[in-house]
Amino acid sequence: MFIAACGNTSTPPSTPAFASTDITGVQFGKGFTLIDHNGVVRSLSDFRGKAVALFFGYTHCPDKCPATMAQVAAALEKLGPAAGRVQVLFVTLDPERDTPSVLKQYLSGFNPRFLGLYGDDETTQETASQFKVFSQRQGAESSGDHTVDHSTGVYIFDPQGQLRLYANAISDGGDALARDLAQLLKAAA
Fold first, then answer.
1. In terms of DSSP bridges, do strands 86-92 and 135-140 run parallel, antiparallel, or are they unpaired?
2. What one-character-per-residue DSSP string does 98-128 give?
3. How far is CA 101 from the centre of its chain?
4. CA–CA gap between residue 40 and residue 55 (Å, rounded)
5. Of 25, 124, 181, 185, whose CB has the highest number of CB atoms within 10 Å?
6. Whole-angstrom Cα distance, residue 181 to residue 53?
7. Mind listing the pLDDT tens digit for each residue in 86-145?
């Protein structure tokens, strides 16, 4: 008996395999307009030509935020000179406490090129909602002794400004994130 296989025997085109979740084409996270810790109004288009890693958090976070920022900083170190083509943005979910000077001091501990972004409460919530970020304050807000429960993924845009990847639970010293960023940068070259 002879069985023939049908179908295309040509090799499919090569597509990058990312460690992060590929979310290319999602209909959310199209952009933002916030103020950076230097007082400059920023939008996603300001960073065209660079890959952008966007994270929502707050400087008083006891665990996830500093751990994530450390991993992102490690990924940039692994990129070497190509790190100059990546902009890391940290959007505060606690704009009352995270003043521009607090954001600048906090982020400079990870990498002086990281930018902190903020807005008023309404703008912050609208921006978080655009990216489907969960955030909820817990505790005594009036005394400033509160925490903010929030999602912890990093949104990664390619140099053309398209949202491409979602990196969650980065814990490998930044290796996978560095590889993903390098692939996005190489594809844009």
1. unpaired
2. --HHHHHHHHHTT-TT-EEEE--HHHHHHHH
3. 21
4. 18
5. 181
6. 9
7. 999 999 999 999 999 999 999 999 999 999 999 999 999 999 999 999 877 777 656 567
